[in-house]
């Protein structure tokens, strides 16, 4: 057990992670983001970073219903979506895209919201299939949320019941176009 | 310590949560938790007319959707006393067995991926596409077919379907041997399967487990043989059983069932008579009950329909095989290591769509 004196002495010597974050904030905010250095760096790196982002869209490996099978088929030999850099990852912390592929029940709603919150920025959401778009054949059920966009912002809608793998790949290509059109610098956000 | 495996976990294959209590690495207790995919299908059926429910029944189990719409149609035919034309019955048997192969291939792909045999996933998915192409030619859809109708099937076989199916079967039978070499030649696959997840014969019977899991425990119980429906009486096939009760036995039973399905498909094509494929069914059902049981790829599925004289059912009850099997999961899991959970639960072939309804 340390006493108070030791702690204060230790704190005076150490450079804590909180101090480091504060330093990062001050330096990045003060020097990079608000000065011409930031916009200059953004101007140089913007296109390159955007190219890297849109060609390595990792989506969350999270199967809900029928469309999950088509999601698996899209990774299989005939459709092979890995050639576009679209790869499933099992942890939401490594993902760029949340692929919602089925009806969201009221029990699932908080879980899905939490998965979305756990994903790091920048992130996008694809609603695959009628169930995720509007509830599909279960739109009037007592336990199904009619549309995932009621609690998560959705970027791309892929219709179909279930959506075919070609449609899924087309949705990802449309997302790539969208990312390319809205490219922003990492530092200044412009 | 309790570990939550789910609802988002690469092991789950669907939407459920397995809570395991561990002592060190050994599992001492387990609690499966389902209900994340509850859509209230039984209630939704009460607001739809009889033909409108067929697409909903398709979406009960996305792995083997045709089995469930066929089961629903059989239950309604029992309620309405409708005689199905013989050619339609043969087409149904043909498509159901094709669906069984597709479902088992999907299981095998997921199982191989789980156990670190990525090449198994790639091969099995490639052969699954062959049968999905046949389904596309027949119904136009890849997963949810909406093909059986009350009193028959939607339409006759397309041109050259028989030739294409025989070609696909002979191609697939060769591939099936290739899978056996691939899987059983892999030392890792065998180490993670043999002697893991033992479910004894008595336990399996007492807990109501059906399907390949029961047959892998050494019980010869198959509704296609024991209580033949459709035209299974005229088909010549074996009920596959295995006496080892472990994950390897379940894998072996499913592999052999795919082989038997190929034989049934060949016989169905050979014996198929000519004639009508559909008769006009009445719009309203009489007051009474209808019951049907089928051998789903995952176990015994049952539907019980109460009619009240109108064009909508009064009550639809669905018996799901996996809802029963998953309740036996603690019995299988206790005593094994956490790393075995993937092999054991993967070997049960979970399908949450019909579990949660």
Radius of gyration of CA atoms of chain A, rounded to a whole number:
21 Å
At CATH level 3, the topology of chain B is Cytochrome-c3 Hydrogenase, chain B
Order of helices and strands of chain B: EEEHHHHHEEHHHHHHEEEHHHH
What structural class do the secondary elements of chain B suggest? alpha+beta
CATH superfamily of chain B: Cytochrome-c3 Hydrogenase, chain B
Strand order of the largest sheet of chain B: 1-2-3
Overall form of chain B:
globular
As laid out across the biggest beta sheet of chain A, the strand order is: 3-5-7
Q: Roughly how many Å is the radius of gyration of chain B?
A: 20 Å
In the predicted model, the low-confidence regions of chain A spanning at least 5 consecutive residues are none
Helical amount of chain B: 40-55%
Gist of the model:
Chain A has seven helices and seven strands; from the N terminus they run H-H-H-E-H-E-E-E-H-E-H-E-E-H. Chain A has 190 residues and is an alpha/beta fold. The mean pLDDT of chain A is 84.
What does this structure look like?
The complex is a heterodimer of chains A (190) and B (357). With 190 residues, chain A is of the alpha/beta class. Chain A has a domain at 53-181: Rossmann fold. Helix content of chain A is 46%, strand content 12%. Chain A contains seven helices and seven strands; from the N terminus they run H-H-H-E-H-E-E-E-H-E-H-E-E-H. Chain A is globular, with a radius of gyration of 21 Å. In chain A, 35% of the residues are buried. Chain B has one domain: Cytochrome-c3 Hydrogenase, chain B (Orthogonal Bundle). Chain B has 15 helices and eight strands. In chain B, strands 1-2-3 form a three-stranded antiparallel β-sheet. Chain B has a three-stranded antiparallel β-sheet with strand order 6-7-8. Chain B has a two-stranded antiparallel sheet with strand order 4-5. In chain B, helix 3 (65-80) packs antiparallel against helix 4 (86-114). The longest helix of chain B is centred in the N-terminal third of the chain and has 29 residues, at 86-114. Chain B is globular, with a radius of gyration of 20 Å. The mean pLDDT of chain B is 88. The chains are: A alpha/beta (190), B alpha+beta (357). At the A-B interface, helix 4 of A face helix 1, helix 4 and helix 5 of B.
